[in-house]
Amino acid sequence: MKITINQAGQYVGQEVTIGSWLLQKRGSGKIQFLQLRDGTGFMQGVVVKANDEDLFAAAKGLHQETSMYVTGTIKEDERSSFGYEMEVTGIEIIHSAEGYPITPKNHGPEFLMDHRHLWLRSRKQHAVMNIRNQIIKSTHDFFFNNGFKKIDPPILTSSSPEGTTELFHTKYFEEDAYLSQSGQLYAEAAAMAHGKVFTMGPTFRAEKSKTRRHLIEFWMIEPEMAFYEHEDSLKVQEDFVSYLVKEVLTHCRLDLEALGRDTTVLEKIEAPFPRITYTEAIELLKEKGYDDIEWGEDFGAPHETEIASHYEKPVFIVNYPKAIKSFYMEENPEDPRTVLCADLIAPEGYGEIIGGSERIHDYETLKARISETGLDLDAYEWYLDLRRYGSVPHSGFGLGLERTVAWLSGVQHVRETSPFPRLLNRLYP
Ligand code: 4AD
Ligand code: MG
């Protein structure tokens, strides 16, 4: 019977065969422990010399990452976090690997990134991708269960929602085109057709930032809701993020354990989240001795980390100055220097995971803002149509998938949260 490792619990006491790779092995002159992996899980195979000398010799000669069919009897094993092991009775090698470059010793990040296509097989990288996968699944569950429809925005676009300096330019036959920075403008059009929508797709920023939070290509989840005001959107955001945390804690226990993630900090994440205004945040920073920032300037990573350190949950920084935010954000009626927006800052120094706002829904105001920003009005005619015909108040936000994965996994750098990260100096593999 051919099974997978995650099915082992149903076959205790039975002889089964598992297609697997050798992650590592250790042992003595009498017994060999084979760490097997098959994508669904990890399991130890035990080979005892006294039981079968030929099999023992074969096991001893196996190289790391050799692929094989391993046959044996499943046993319960309390010492293994997975709960089962296999008493091996047969090994059929499919392909013997030799000289696998990623050994159990420590390698530097550049070496590991050069071997990303192989590094993905390691226990920790496998765990991070499992967490990413859970977040993707739970995102769909959350929005579908709450009456949202998924809309796929284009990747090749003619306009730029988030400023013109970070655009990837390409030719679209005779025309100019850009890789999408955000699906938001298209999500707004879809919200006028469907009410509540969300997108999930790749976005691109030609940003010359080399930080542990920046990718050139990253995935964004962008909900957009008709008839939702700013405050309504904050509620969706805190419910959504709390749901993701709960789902990861429930379904990724072994992965969090493999990563050594401190889960007590995640267990405290529950809606509602605290809110602080941009102006209050500036005052807080001044009190803490940050002289390098004035009202009107954007926060850097150290500022965000300082602000977040005052809370155990993610914190919303609301009402940023209009001048440092995107053109489409609705003015704050209580202070016209600012807009109805929020950034959600994750705890533990993981930085901004969400940016969102209420959108300008008045035609003249939006048109004026597009012109003031120096954008080409022609490219936004279709977007202005949304304000010409049945415009309504609406709000939305964008959650960065990789930063959320980094936070929940507890990995320090976003390069480990994307299967094949595109970084400032990296397009290979
Ligand atoms: O704050 P941003 O730029 O917002 C938007 O693009 C809006 N159009 C979203 C919307 O309202 N629909 O990006 C949103 C999120 C950030 O909070 C961050 O989590 C992530 O996307 N992000 C990045 N992640 C990795 N690398 C980068 N270079 C990122 N830039 C933004
Ligand atoms: Mg932002």
TrEMBL record:
It comes from the Bacteria. It is an enzyme of class 6 (ligase). It catalyses: tRNA(Asn) + L-asparagine + ATP = L-asparaginyl-tRNA(Asn) + AMP + diphosphate + H(+). The keyword Nucleotide-binding applies. Its EC number is 6.1.1.22. GO terms for molecular function: asparagine-tRNA ligase activity. Gene3D superfamilies: Bira Bifunctional Protein, Domain 2, Nucleic acid-binding proteins. PROSITE patterns: AA_TRNA_LIGASE_II. Signal peptide: none annotated. It is found in: Cytoplasm. Pfam families: tRNA-synt_2, tRNA_anti-codon. Keywords: Aminoacyl-tRNA synthetase, ATP-binding, Cytoplasm, Ligase, Nucleotide-binding, Protein biosynthesis. Residues 131-429 form the Aminoacyl-transfer RNA synthetases class-II family profile domain. InterPro entries: Aa-tRNA-synt_II (IPR004364), aa-tRNA-synth_II (IPR006195), aa-tRNA-synth_II/BPL/LPL (IPR045864), Asn-tRNA-ligase (IPR004522), Asp/Asn-tRNA-synth_IIb (IPR002312), NA-bd_OB-fold (IPR012340), NA-bd_OB_tRNA (IPR004365). The keyword Nucleotide-binding applies. CDD domains: AsnRS_cyto_like_N, AsxRS_core. Its main location: cytoplasm. Belongs to the class-II aminoacyl-tRNA synthetase family. Homodimer. This is Asparagine--tRNA ligase. It comes from Corticicoccus populi.
